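To illustrate the input format used throughout this study, we show a single complete record. The first block contains the structure-token representation of the backbone; no residue identities are included at this stage. The design step must infer an amino acid for every position from geometry alone.
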């Protein structure tokens, strides 16, 4: 058994396989660009179908395929404008309904305060 020990080797740190006779798969580089102009390079297999959009690595926008040889700026995407809580509330209820709910809640609050049941 002691004749089979490999002295001086660190078995867990590297592989003893050689890279001779290894054929690597063909690869292709795809470049994606977002509306902010950030370029993202991604490596794909040569026969893989490229996606239509890719997440930009620098910002939250989606990036579209970009041909480096013909640099035309991407079409400006309409950025979604943020809505306030009030705007979202008005999408679900009318102003009259909101007034009614407000009056109900104020009545309940005043009754609790009159009884001394104020909660913070």
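Output of the design step:
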């Amino acid at each position: 058994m002691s004749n089979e020990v490999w002295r001086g080797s660190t078995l867990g740190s590297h592989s003893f396989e050689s890279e001779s006779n290894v054929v690597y798969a063909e690869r292709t580089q795809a470049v994606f660009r977002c509306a902010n102009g950030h370029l993202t390079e991604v490596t794909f297999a040569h026969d893989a179908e490229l996606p239509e959009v890719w997440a930009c690595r620098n910002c939250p926008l989606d990036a579209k395929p970009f041909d480096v040889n013909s640099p035309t700026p991407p079409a400006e995407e309409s950025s979604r404008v943020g809505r306030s809580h009030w705007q979202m509330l008005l999408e679900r209820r009318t102003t009259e309904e909101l007034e009614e709910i407000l009056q109900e809640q104020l009545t309940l609050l005043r009754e609790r305060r009159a009884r001394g049941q104020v909660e913070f």
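Structural context for interpreting the output: Residues 85-115 form one domain. The chain has a mean pLDDT of 80.
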